[in-house]
Design brief:
This protein is α/β, with parallel strands linked by helices. It has a domain of about 160 residues: Vaccinia Virus protein VP39 (Rossmann fold). It is about 40% helix and about 20% strand. The chain is built from nine helices and eight strands. Strands 1, 2, 3, 4, 5, 6, 7 and 8 form an eight-stranded mixed beta sheet that branches. Helix 5 links the parallel strand 4 and strand 5. Helix 1 crosses helix 2, helix 5 packs parallel to helix 7 and helix 8 packs antiparallel against helix 9. It is globular. The termini are far apart. Bound molecules: S-adenosylmethionine. The site of S-adenosylmethionine has 22 residues, from helix 2 and strand 2.
Length: about 240
Amino acid sequence: MEKLGPGSNLDTLQVLAMIPQDSFPVVVDAGSGAGRQTLALASQLRTPVHAVDTSERHLGTLARYAEEFGMDELVHMHCMDMADIPARFPAIDLLWSECAAYHIGFPRALETWFPAIRPDGYAVVSELSWLRSMDEVPRAAREYFRSGYPDMRTVDDNLAIARAVGYDVIATHLLSRAAWIDGYYDKLEPLANSLLQHAEQSVRNFAQQTLSGIRIFDSAEGNYGYVFYVLRKPRHAVS
Ligand SMILES: C[S@@+](CC[C@H](N)C(=O)[O-])C[C@H]1O[C@@H](n2cnc3c(N)ncnc32)[C@H](O)[C@@H]1O
């Protein structure tokens, strides 16, 4: 799969445009994967982007794309844990993370990266979020995510977490429906269907779980989504 999660360049660039600044000397993309958004950012900003991921395979794919598009000088690969970003990049102007912060936990990610962001610098982090209060969410969706992503919080809860860490909230953006489907669910669905009879039980289970997720998405639209949190570290923040 080219896309490792829901996302689109259109959404990435719309969110980038919400930041009231257009020059960022140090840009880090945490959990870059194969780097769709890394390339979109580097191409738009014409500035180097540091792609951080623990997967050498994904970084290798990104390196191939960067070369193909003549952008190898604008993309730097770092095979490392996103939790270690402050040690490697102590003064970041723009920290970007799409569809990846949940790997270390959204609250922990925001806290961990805060000291590494320059005063007046930005963090843009997307996180799967409930869009309504839990008592309004259909039971099927609640049950699916009770095991699928029990840490999912409402947008208000995530905003409160960001403010408690010390960020100013500049904007939020809900990932478009098309970004879930084009090149992601429309590829994943036939792939998962083809694995339902796989010899290994774990693969069959994963395929089944994937298809359930797609069904929940179709039936529970508007109840949850990927939300981009556009955050700024205040100029006089302590840390
Ligand atoms: C769902 S993919 C999203 C990739 C990309 N940001 C996108 O939106 O297409 C999550 C990525 O996070 C990476 N990852 C998981 N845990 C990580 C960690 N602790 N540090 C750095 N990367 C990590 C995975 O290897 C994977 O590439």
